[in-house]
Amino acid sequence: AKRFKPGVILISGCQDNQTSMDGDDNGAFTEQLLKVWNNGTFDGNYAAFHARIRARMPASQSPKLFTLGAVGRFLTQKPFTV
Question: For the chain, what is the mean pLDDT?
Fold first, then answer.
């Protein structure tokens, strides 16, 4: 039997000890994610995407970047591309 070894990247709205705040139309994190994504014109990798979103958030809510498994190449890709 083959072993399945997935690589996972999670960008969540806040740290485990924080609460995600609401925004005007979505949660605060989702609003900033959509602004940074800018209808797909964002031209960086996942680490840059996370950093840009995090910089736009209030100090009380810090989006989390969590990885599991072999994600090195995946982290260097443009977000939400296949």
Answer: 92
